[in-house]
Amino acid sequence: MKLLTCPINGTRPLSEFIFGGEYRQAPDQNTCSDAEWAAYVHNRQGAPGDKKEWWYHSPSGTWFIAERNTQTDKVARTYLLADAKKVVKESK
Amino acid sequence: MPILRVIDLSAHERYGVKGPQAAKWLASHGVATPKNANAWVLNKGKTLVMRLGTSEFLIEDQTDGKTCEKLASDTKRVVGVYKVPHADASYLLAGSEVLNMLSELCSLDLGESALAENELVMTQLAGISATILRQRMDKETVYRVWCDGTYGVYMQHVLRNIAVELGGSVA
């Protein structure tokens, strides 16, 4: 059984989760060019490797970030978006 | 001890609230809340207060409880407090075969060693999202289950089928 760890609810079967797409920082819509905004809306980086992704734990309604290598399917860590700064600081 | 008891408690009054100020708002109404995420407390033996995740609460009046009615009567809007309407189906499961029943429905271990007193889990039961907790009631271990009300008939059907499979009968 494939497992994923929700930062609030713990380790659960993958069947309890829904993939929410890659987590990407949006450019500032007030200052970016049309080309930059169009690239953000329409383009995706498809190369396999380490990615930040949105995942949703459906029984509890918890959205969180998973850092996953899309080639090996290894999840390095999961955390709430609100804790992202703390996680980055701790990893340095 | 009976093999299995499945009691429909969907008629109990419920009230939901969430938001960064929800715990404070409940405290101002005299409702004690669990300090930890995914935990529950029984207020004065009459009102079950569940903390779902970190900042959402599900409150359920037991027999004679009046807290939900009191909370619902406060219609003043408060920043950081959001009401969550609930129309849950709710069941009480008990009996000597209750863990066998749950192991057929859920991939998590819900025994005493895995699910501590005053903890709750939000997981899938019979393929649908559910909140589950274990409590002592009249010296007996019972499990409480909540799921979306629209799945109530399905859940009851599944629970009854398994009860019969495990040697029980439908009253």
Description:
The complex is a heterodimer of chains A (92) and B (171). Chain A is of the alpha+beta class. Chain A has one domain: Folate-binding superfamily (Folate-binding fold). Helices cover 18% and strands 39% of the residues of chain A. Chain A is built from two helices and six strands. Chain A has a four-stranded antiparallel sheet, with no helix packed on it. In chain A, strands 1-2 form a two-stranded antiparallel ribbon. Chain B has 171 residues and is an alpha+beta fold. Chain B has two domains: 5-10 and 88-165, Gyrase A, domain 2 (2-Layer Sandwich); 14-84. Chain B has a five-stranded antiparallel sheet with strand order 1-7-10-9-8, with helices on one face. Chain B has a five-stranded antiparallel sheet with strand order 3-4-5-2-6. The model of chain B has no long low-confidence stretch (mean pLDDT 93). Chain A binds chain B through residues 1, 8-9, 12-13, 15-16, 57-62, and chain B through 37-38, 52-54, 107-108, 121-124, 129-131.
Shape of chain B: elongated
Helix- and strand-based class of chain B?
Answer: alpha+beta
- State the largest interface: A-B, 13 and 14 residues
- Characterize the main sheet of chain A: 4 strands, antiparallel
As a percent range, the share of strand residues of chain A is 35-45%
**CATH topology (level 3) name of chain A:** Folate-binding fold
CATH superfamily membership of the largest domain in chain B: Probable tRNA modification gtpase trme, domain 1
Tally the structural domains of chain B.
2
Query: What are the low-pLDDT stretches of chain A, counting only 5+ consecutive residues below 50?
Result: none
Helicity of chain B, as a percent range: 10-25%
Top-tier CATH class of the largest domain in chain B:
Alpha Beta
% residues in beta strands of chain B? 35-45%
Number of domains of chain A: 1
- Please write the string of helix (H) and strand (E) elements of chain B: EEHEEEHEEHEEEH
Shape of chain A: globular
**Sheet having the most strands of chain B:** 5 strands, antiparallel
Structural class of chain A: alpha+beta
